[in-house]
Amino acid sequence: MMVPIKSSDQVEACLWFSRNDGIDYVAHDIEFAERIAAQIAGPVAGALIRERAAMLARERAALANIGELMIGAPDIGSVFSEFVGQMTQLLSFDALVFMEIDHTEQTVERRPVYLDPKMEHLYLFKPISIPLGGTVAQEVTSTRMGMLHRTEGNFKPRSKRPVAYIPRSSIMVPLLWGDEVVMTLWVARDSEKMFEEEDVALMERVASQIAGPVAGSIMNRRDLDIAEERRRREIAELKVTTLSELSETKSNFVSAMSHELRTPLTSIVAFSDILSRNPQ
C-alpha cells in the first residue's frame, strides 16, 4: 500500500506499507495511512526543503571552488588531479576526460584522462587524437548541447589483456567560448546506477563555470606553440643565412688567394722560361 505525502497540492514523497502475513489491506487501512501522511506532510516537506537547500549550497560551493581552481591554472594538466577531486564532490564517476576540438584539422584530442585506478588494469584508456567526424564529440559540437548515453548489458572484459572502455552510461557536455566549442567534458560510470538527465544539467553547469578559463588556457598554449614554431623557424633561417655567408666568405677567400698566388707564379714562370732559353 502506498499513499502520497502532499504539501500545497504537491506530492513531496510517498509512504509505503507492506505486510507478509497474507492479509490484504482494506479501505480502512488506506484511510488510516492517508491520515498519517497528512499528519507528517509538513515536517517531511520542511525536511526535504532543507535537504535540497543544503545540496544546492554544496553544489554552489563546489562549483565556485572548481571555477577558482581553473582560473588560476596555466593549463588544464597542471590542475587536473585537483579538478577530478573537486568533481567527485558533485558526481560519482569512473572516468573523466577533456576532449579538445581542433576545428581546422577536424580532430578531437583526448587529454588529459582519468580512470579509476581499480579499473586501469582492465581497460585501454589513454590520451589519443582521432578524426572528429562520426564521434559523439562532433554531435555535441554541432548541437551545442549535453548528451546522455546509456548502454544495456555488462561489458566487463573477460580477456586478461586490457580492452577498450565501454561504460554503461556516460555524459558529454560542450565547453562554449563565444560561438565556438573549444572542448568537451566527458564523464562515464560503469555501475548499475546510471546517469540521469539531472546529471546532464549538473555537468552543463560545470561546463559553463570552467569554459572561460579552459578557453584561455587553450589560447595561451596555442600562442606558446606559435611562438615556439616562430622561434624554430627563425633559428633555421639564421642557420641558412650563416651558412650562406660562410659559403660566400669561402668563395671570396679562394678567389682572392687564387689571384694573389697567380700573379707571382706568372712572373716565376716567365723568368724560368727566359732562363731556360739563355742558360748563360
Set out the fold topology.
Blueprint: E1 2-7, E2 10-16, H1 27-71, H2 76-87, E3 95-102, E4 107-115, E5 123-124, E6 128-131, H3 136-143, E7 147-150, E8 163-164, E9 169-177, E10 180-189, H4 197-277
Parallel strand pairs: 5-8
Antiparallel strand pairs: 1-2, 3-4, 3-10, 4-6, 7-9, 9-10
3D structure, described in words:
By secondary structure, the protein is of the alpha+beta class. The protein is 52% helix and 22% strand. The protein contains 4 helices and 10 strands, in the order ββααββββαββββα. It has helices spanning 27-71, 76-87, 136-143, 197-277, and strands spanning 2-7, 10-16, 95-102, 107-115, 123-124, 128-131, 147-150, 163-164, 169-177, 180-189. A hairpin with a 4-residue loop joins strand 3 and strand 4.
| Secondary-structure element series | EEHHEEEEHEEEEH
Characterize the biggest β-sheet: 6 strands, antiparallel
Q: What is the tally of helical segments?
A: 4
- Cα radius of gyration in angstroms: 37 Å
- The shape is rod-shaped
Name the structural class: alpha+beta
Number of strands: 10
Q: Specify the helix fraction band.
A: 40-55%
- Strand percentage lies at 15-25%
Give the terminus-to-terminus CA distance: 146 Å
For the largest sheet, list the strands in their spatial order.
6-4-3-10-9-7
Mean pLDDT: 84
Give the low-pLDDT segments.
none
